[in-house]
Amino acid sequence: MDLIASSLMGAVQGLSEFLPISSSAHIVFTSNFYKIFKQVTIQQEHSTQEIFFDIMLHFGTLIAVLIYFRKEIWDICKALWQAIKTKNYGTTDAKLGLYIILGTIVTIILALPLEKFASHLVFHPAIVGGLLILTGGALFFSEYLSKKKDSKSTEINLIQALLIGLAQGVAVLPGLSRSGWTIAAGLFLGLDRQTAARYSFLLSVPIIMGASMVYPLVKIDMAEAAGYNWTSIIIGTIISGIVGYLCIKYFMKFISKFSLNIFGYYCVIMGVFTLIFFNIYR
């Protein structure tokens, strides 16, 4: 892994984590395209350094969402702590915090059985391209249904939180965009555009935090980690965080005014291209 590759992967992760175009798919595509360009054999197993680098790229986007939503997250944490002490979850922020916890639990229950299959798909970019086409279809369908609803909610309820958690769990498969499927689920369930996007980003915090902190402690050999290319890892992580923050900032403005269909078209076109390309180059 060199500086060019790490910088490119960091930019791709930061851009695609919060846009509904599947960061995991784009990391798979970018990594494999780069290996083809460098005439490196596409292996059927990732090194621990590659896995750790991917975790760190997600950590960069975690920092981005924590900074952008720092006030909301602080208010939710305070309200949830107060609700635990008083056993009164009546406030909006306390309920939102509880819904994020429950939605995360549902995500984990669904994602864990799919994890092994998801990790296997990383080495099959053509299949990932096919799943990206499904993401495009989900975006089109959610926009279609959302336009048919006369009124849209600015507050989430328990059923909506659990169903969006399920959507996030399914999106463990590369190609099924986490933000795309959770926002689409929110629109499908009657949330307004900004509420669906805001909840999607807040719901990502516990999952990304757990993956980026638990995995290194459990899976990474610290003696082996001393030999990693830390310069490339750190630069990629920083770029991921900066690009991710800017992406959240402008996407929140975009989604309040414009349709997600543009991302749906992108997902379908990119999915078809990679499906054809990697079926030829295999």
Stretches where pLDDT is under 50 for at least 5 consecutive residues are none
Order of helices and strands: HHHHHHHHHHHH
Sheet-strand content, in percent, reads under 5%
Average pLDDT reading: 88
* Separation, N- and C-terminal Cα atoms: 22 Å
Work out the helicity level: over 70%
Broad structural category: mainly alpha
* Total number of beta strands: 0
- The global form is globular
Largest sheet: none
Gyration radius, in Å: 19 Å
Number of domains: 1
Total DSSP helices: 12
Explain the overall architecture:
- With 282 residues, this protein is mostly helical.
- It has one domain (3-280).
- Helix content is 79%, strand content 0%.
- The chain contains 12 helices and no strands.
- It has helices at 3-16, 23-37, 48-68, 70-86, 92-121, 125-148, 158-170, 178-188, 193-219, 222-225, 230-255, 261-280.
- α3 (48-68) runs antiparallel to α9, α4 (70-86) crosses α5 (92-121) and α8 (178-188) packs antiparallel against α9.
- The longest helix has 30 residues, at 92-121.
- The two termini are 22 Å apart.
